[in-house]
Write a structure and sequence with these properties.
Layout (H helix, E strand, L loop, with lengths): L8 H19 L2 E2 H8 L3 H14 L2 E6 L11 E5 L5 E6 L6 E6 L4 E6 L8 H18 L7 E8 L2 E3 L4 E3 L9 H12 L2 E6 H12 L8 E6 L3 E7 L2 E3 L18 H5 L13 H11 L2 H9 L9 H9 L3 H25 L3 E5 L6 H15 L6 E3 L6 H24 L2
Parallel strand pairs: 4-7, 7-10, 11-14, 14-15
Antiparallel strand pairs: 1-3, 2-3, 4-5, 5-6, 8-9, 11-12, 12-13
Length: 410
């Protein structure tokens, strides 16, 4: 049985305030009359809601606009107060985590990376991150009270209710449940944890290559192979936030399956950075080994940055490796395009550095195999896709919280 519920006036006010706040954010400077006309809200309701937002300090009055042709007083314009509070965004990526301080308008005030070695224990990692956040705040003479949110993107799946975290073995040294609690306790603010590929998808959708798209997929290649999905303009995470995990490691423990020699091939294992490094160590010809030796690196000590340098120098073996990976990813993207019928695919992640070689291969495979082929383009924001996605997702959380608090205090 469907039960109809009434909506009280305070709840309506909170909804109106959120709509007004979004409009001012996107179209500032703007007058009360323009807001009332474009949002179809009465002048009296607009006056009441604007007063509440001015009281919060999240918007400000900003000079005078142009008077109507019929004369009369010039309207007072309104603008968003981007210095109301600040956002710290952290991207826990494959090699060097990125730390960014920005205002609510998404303007970056400070940005740096911190090198954290692969074998660092969790306690060391936590201390490094806490110190990096303190440094960001002090660099702009800010305190914890100025902080609206700390937003973190990382590989894996995080359940914000139970604080459980699932990730592949490459990310085993991060305990995101305890990590988020420690951050909240230390800085007295809310912490948002987002899958790194989802954050990048939102970044490209709001500020990058997918601004004119409604149904798009961001495919990240490198540390793993995953997808961030935007459907009808909204991030799609699935019923348990697992959507897009297209290359999860699968192990069969069933006796019958083993007896019959059945197995799942790990798509990520054949195309990720660890797989690439394993192939180089096992198959690289002497010429490629010599190229790494010229960098002062043995086969066992090479890093992904070393691979990029030798690939850029045109090493034939590495170009063959990258082409083979492009074929695997192209097949995966073809299936995704058929499954979701999206209008655009964006290719990003660590492998975006190879896009000049990989994308012609990927686009050829998609064109030959997908029912309705779409273009696969490189991430426009490159390494900043996830950071701008965190800004956009943080803004939604902050605006919801402000307007809800206004409702709760009424």
């Amino acid at each position: 049985m469907n039960i109809k519920r009434t909506v009280d006036q305070t709840h309506i006010r909170s909804i109106n305030q959120r709509v007004i706040l979004d409009k001012i954010y996107s179209d500032e400077p703007i007058s009360r009359a323009e807001l009332a006309r474009e949002l179809l809200i009465s002048k009296s309701a607009m006056t009441e809601n604007i007063a509440a937002l001015l009281n919060m300090g999240i918007i400000q009055e900003f000079g005078e606009g142009v008077s109507m042709s019929s004369g009369g007083r010039k309207p007072i314009l309104l603008k968003f107060n981007k210095k109301y509070q600040y956002i710290i965004a952290i991207e826990l990526n494959f090699e060097d985590p990125i730390f960014v301080l920005a205002n609510l308008g998404g303007e970056i005030l400070n940005k740096f990376t911190v090198n954290i070695s692969d074998d660092s224990p969790y306690a060391t990692r936590l201390d490094l991150v806490l110190n990096a956040v303190r440094l960001l705040l002090s660099s702009s003479n800010l305190t914890n009270d100025d902080l609206a949110i700390i937003a973190i993107s990382c590989p894996g799946i995080f359940d914000s209710v139970n604080r459980t975290f699932f990730a592949n073995s490459n990310f085993a040294n991060w305990n995101m449940g305890d990590f988020s609690r420690q951050m909240e306790a230390c800085f007295g603010t809310s912490v948002l944890v987002v899958n790194d590929v989802n954050a990048a998808a939102v970044g490209e959708f709001t500020c990058g290559a997918a601004k004119n798209s409604r149904d798009m997929v961001y495919v990240s290649g490198g540390l793993g192979l995953g997808a961030g999905i935007i459907l009808n303009g909204e991030l799609y995470e699935g019923s348990s936030n697992c959507a897009g995990e297209i290359a999860n490691e699968i192990t069969i423990n069933n006796d019958m399956a083993r007896a019959r020699g059945l197995s799942f091939n790990n798509l990520g294992g054949s195309a990720n950075i660890n797989g690439l490094m394993a192939r180089i160590r096992g198959e690289a010809p002497q010429s490629t080994r010599d190229a790494f030796a010229a960098l002062g690196k043995s086969q066992e000590k090479i890093s992904f940055k070393d691979i990029i340098r030798v690939w850029r120098d045109g090493d034939p073996f590495l170009r063959e490796c990258v082409e083979d990976i492009a074929v695997v990813i192209g097949g995966a993207i073809s299936n995704i395009v058929c499954l979701l019928n999206c209008d655009l695919v964006i290719f990003g992640g660590e492998y975006n550095v190879f896009h000049s070689q990989m994308l012609p291969v990927i686009n050829r495979i998609v064109k030959e195999n997908a029912f309705t082929p779409v273009k696969v383009v490189p991430a426009l924001l490159e390494k900043n896709s996830g950071i701008y996605g965190l800004f956009a997702l943080s803004k939604e959380v902050i605006f919801d919280r402000l307007c809800r608090q206004g409702h709760e205090h009424t």
